[in-house]
Structures are given as structure tokens and as C-alpha cells.
Fold this protein.
Amino acid sequence: MASLAYVVQVSAAVLTYAIIARVILSWFPMRPDNPVLVFLYTITEPILAPLRRVLPPLGMLDLSPLVAIIILQVLEGLLVRLLLA
């Protein structure tokens, strides 16, 4: 079970870093067909889109990445604890 817990930890870390990278890259003008952007949108949009539908808009501020990272960290902690128990 320790190896499965490791997979959960690595997956959560990769998704967290992908969300952070997406946020940072959104501050710079880039072509939408950029392969890095396409990859980041592909792996993060399934997480962020449902949150955007639930969270109320706050003007130009999108809180979905922050909420997604918090949810990922909580789920990772719970799953790892369950797998290692």
C-alpha cells in the first residue's frame, strides 16, 4: 500500500504544480495553440471547470485554482492516511 500512497502523493503534486504553472502563464500573452498551454489546460480544466460553475465570480479574480489546490491537498492527506493505516 505504501507504493499506492506514493502514487497518490506524486499525482497530487503534479496536479498542484500544473495548476500553479497555468495561473502564472495566464499572466503572460501566449498563443492558445502553444503546446505547453494545451497540455496544462488538458490536465487542469477537468478540475477547474466544475469549481468555476460552483464558485461565485469575484470580478476579474478566479478563485478556482486556489480552491482546487486546497481540495487536492486535503484529498491527498486523507487518501495517504487511509492507505498507510
In short: The chain has a mean pLDDT of 94. Residues 2-25 form the longest helix (24 residues).
